[in-house]
Each structure stands twice: as C-alpha cells, then as structure tokens.
C-alpha cells in the first residue's frame, strides 16, 4: 500500500497499439488491491470507470458505468503492473498481454474479447470468481452514486500532472 486515498496518479497502459496515459484518483489502496477512479472527459460521466489492480495479479478489473447505471465489468489481462514515482509524479505502468480480455454483464454472464478465445490457465480462477459471484464480481462498488462521491481532480491539475509525466518517468 503506497498510495493515499484522494491522490492523483497516472495509469500508463502499454500495449501493441502504443502507450496511453490516464489521470486517476486513488479511491483506496488496501489488501484487496489498488482501486482507481479513471477520469473520463470533462462533463462525460459515461466515460468514468473504476479499476481494481489486485496485488501481485496480472489482471485488472474495470467497472463500467453510464450516466444512469453500472453496465458491467471488463477484465484486462496484463503481463505486469509496476508502480513508480519520479519528478513529483506517481503512477503505475501496466503492460497489456495483447490477448484480449473478459467482458462480464451485471448478471454475471461472461465472454472473451479480442484474442482471448482459448483456455488460458491464468483466467480460470477469474472465471470461477465470476461464475460464483465472488469479489470483485459480487456487486461491490457497482452503485453509480458512489462513483460520484469520489473526488475528481480539477482539469488544470490533470493537465499539469500529465504534462509532468510526459517528461519521461522511469520506464517499467
């Protein structure tokens, strides 16, 4: 647990299509993992997401919302997740496996996306958790009103954070 609730950090995603940086607010960093509110475009609540990075795991669980409701989860499969800090900016870099992922509906139906079509031994415990409705697929953090209560940084703070980040933090 290295991040503090309310802290703004950078989520850097590396994959075959390049690298993207997203400003995030730390909701909590606890034994279940690092929970982030990934910020969408200003004024577009339908682009807000929550993402949980379980400790030591090679996946993340994304909560998807519209303006009105929770619409499901997406499990992203990663090779690694590495925290970093440099020049007054903190973040975490995740490296996508390039094998797709798993989409899950609110009623716990799931399907593989992208190249994730075959049996992957790393996904078997995830599929078991999905099918049995165990955390994080148990309804935790699915209330849209909770998302609104978590702090959203001011646009100027996001711009400054991403500008400082682009001065090349350590590669992960």
The major β-sheet equals:
7 strands, mixed, barrel
Beta-strand content:
35-45%
Radius of gyration: 16 Å
CATH topology: FomD barrel-like fold
Segments where pLDDT lies below 50 for 5+ residues?
Answer: none
H-E string: EEEEEEEEHHH
Count of helices? 3
Name the CATH class: Mainly Beta
Instruction: Estimate percent helicity.
Output: 10-25%
Q: What's the total number of strands? A: 8
Characterise the protein shown here:
The chain is α+β, with helices and mostly antiparallel strands and 172 residues long. The protein has a single domain (8-165), classed as FomD-like (FomD barrel-like fold). The protein contains 3 helices and 8 strands, in the order E-E-E-E-E-E-E-E-H-H-H. It has a 7-stranded mixed β-barrel. It is globular, with a radius of gyration of 16 Å. The mean pLDDT is 81.
Main attributes of the structure:
single chain, 172 residues, alpha+beta, FomD barrel-like fold, 8 strands, 15% helix, globular
Walk me through the topology:
Elements: E1 8-15, E2 18-30, E3 33-38, E4 49-53, E5 59-65, E6 70-86, E7 89-104, E8 110-113, H1 124-132, H2 144-149, H3 155-165
Parallel strand pairs: 1-7
Antiparallel strand pairs: 1-2, 2-3, 3-4, 4-5, 5-6, 6-7, 7-8
């Amino acid at each position: 647990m290295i991040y503090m609730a309310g802290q703004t950090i950078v989520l850097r995603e590396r994959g075959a299509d390049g690298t993207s940086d997203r400003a995030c607010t730390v909701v909590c960093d606890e034994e279940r993992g690092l929970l982030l509110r990934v910020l969408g475009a200003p004024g577009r609540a339908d682009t807000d997401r929550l993402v949980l990075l379980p400790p030591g795991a090679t996946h993340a669980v994304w909560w998807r919302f519209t303006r009105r409701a929770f619409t499901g989860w997406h499990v992203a499969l990663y090779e690694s997740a590495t925290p970093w800090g440099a020049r007054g900016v903190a973040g975490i870099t995740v490296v996508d496996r390039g094998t797709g992922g798993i989409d899950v509906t609110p009623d716990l139906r799931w399907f593989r996306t992208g190249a994730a079509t075959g049996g992957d031994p790393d996904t078997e415990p995830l599929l078991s958790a999905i099918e049995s409705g165990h955390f994080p697929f148990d309804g935790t953090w699915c209330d849209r009103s909770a998302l609104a209560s978590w702090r959203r940084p001011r646009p100027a703070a996001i711009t400054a954070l991403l500008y400082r980040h682009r001065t090349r933090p350590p590669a992960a």
